[in-house]
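Summary for the steering committee. The consortium agreed at its last meeting that each partner would contribute one worked example illustrating the joint modelling workflow. Our contribution is presented below. We chose a case with several input lines so that the handling of multiple components could be demonstrated. No manual editing was applied between input and output; the record is shown as generated.
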Amino acid sequence: MKKHNFYAGPSILSQYTIKNTADAVINFADMGLSLLEISHRSKEFQAVMDEAQQLVKELLEVPEGYSVLFLGGGASLQFCMIPFNLLKKKAAYLDTGTWAHNAIKEARIFGDVDVVGSSEADGYTYIPKFEVPDDVDYFHYTSNNTIYGTEMRYDPDVKVPMVADMSSDIFSRPVDVAKYDAIYAGAQKNLAPAGVTIIIVKDEALGHVDRVIPTMLDYRTHVKKGSMFNTPPVLPIFSALQTLRLYKEMGGVKVLEKLDLDKAGKLYEAIDSSRMFTGTVTNPADRSIMNVCFVMKPEYKELEPEFIKFAGERGIVGIKGHRSVGGFRASLYNALPMESVDALVEAMADFQKKH
Amino acid sequence: MKKHNFYAGPSILSQYTIKNTADAVINFADMGLSLLEISHRSKEFQAVMDEAQQLVKELLEVPEGYSVLFLGGGASLQFCMIPFNLLKKKAAYLDTGTWAHNAIKEARIFGDVDVVGSSEADGYTYIPKFEVPDDVDYFHYTSNNTIYGTEMRYDPDVKVPMVADMSSDIFSRPVDVAKYDAIYAGAQKNLAPAGVTIIIVKDEALGHVDRVIPTMLDYRTHVKKGSMFNTPPVLPIFSALQTLRLYKEMGGVKVLEKLDLDKAGKLYEAIDSSRMFTGTVTNPADRSIMNVCFVMKPEYKELEPEFIKFAGERGIVGIKGHRSVGGFRASLYNALPMESVDALVEAMADFQKKH
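What follows is the complete predicted structure of the assembly.
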């Protein structure tokens, strides 16, 4: 049975990426060797790294003066690398969910943190209002909150450089990179399998802190060596390149954005017009187009496990909500086809007819 | 043409590991989903993680009270994580090559470092004599020096806990783990594709430093969460499990050691009995069984590039020596079959006949 993969991450990748990766695991670049066992210093892998960096720049229209890195360790490692490299005295952070919260915790090790807004007390069900003071080194926000289904689908207007964790919505819209000192994203949502994180960093923003930075945590180390200071996560980078090629072929991030808006539009419409389901995000403008969080209305609440089973019988997997929200979460990452949204919407309708 | 893969790392993996990984990239654990797109929180991946940790414990006879972690970021990240977590005042380090040197550099950020021995002045061509004082927090050494072809094939007898970087020779001999506070190893030599590092850490050794450790760099974070605090590098861990299963099936590390000794023995014999080639390690007892470094004698020196070409025509790849040593380096990791050593030895003999 065809599976409809709604997992929040690691999550669905295109068949193009999957197929090319499987082929390369057997024979990479016609070398007669597996992608798993080739030197990262081979000219064949260097070409992969170069093209992947170039395509990130092209797709996001990254201006001159920025470097693109592909590092291991996960986006969670960036929570400390960002302040290690960029926090001189004080930074502003917006608290919009679990990951934002974790990023704030790490930043506090390195300096003052001004939490300019938080929706924690309301279960992170909306993006809080905020104002960023002019005297901070940077403003950090999380563009999409995977767990709570909220998203900031724009580049905020503030008077300081920004840093954004775009782990779960990178490549779903154009970004004005010039407004940022750094953008980082764990690749395991819209790009590649788990194990690599993209960092887009402004070269000029580096080297202004007083502290000693361990070599591997210093972005300059990786910038200087073209992201090849040490052995990079070869396979995840190869897979990322496949996805990036596909994105370019499809027409770039504006095309992806349109597709994503259509998918999310259809699912939110089904939720909003339903007598049984309801969205969890309280401000519709803050709804994520990547992670759609919804629950059953109080009178149907006890049917939630039954719906997960019902949907599962149709090949719909990964829709169980995060334990801190409950209910359902349908992740509609770039690789998810409209066909899967249709299957979910149909399952919702059929389930309602039954009850 | 069949390739004989002598790369130093990432390097040859067994066909068993490669084939099973390629299959799982198409369909993992009969889930109808790719290994690239499944949740690390799925019970199917949790089973992979659990078995991989268990097999490391079994193969290396890890005593109670130790945890096994699979982290991203590379062994180079461990150069700072080790002192972050374990260096209270002073540590002893042995300087046996580039990686040892890099580890020393990072440790100095965190405390006093007593370099108890170094062969740097002699181009790292042997393992220096050393004595470890009793008043250090730990003694750190690099068991195998990939670039220089030297190896410490034993667990040193010192009066303090040890920490070892076993990146390039783990699973090539039994290890007395009880002597160590931590053992770490980038997996891309004897285990898995690049992107994951194994850490075997003594639980009781943690929590004794005064400094604040960023969450992701604190081993306790990962110990507490069974190496699943954040999204782990899923595919490299799956591949590691395949290799570990194979190692168990083959009979464990003692069997692997015997095979490795036989392979290295044959190649060193060919070098020592040759009129054209000579080993670069000055003390035969320090010769690595993982990375065999050799050059052409002065009178044949200019033939080195020709031999690389000559061997390449027979499918022999990856034998170019590191630029800091020159000549040749044949890496004989666990997955390399004797047949490949035979091919290299034959190429050496045939080349000598020609000249």
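Chain B touches chain A through 66 residues (CB under 8 Å). The mean pLDDT of chain B is 97.
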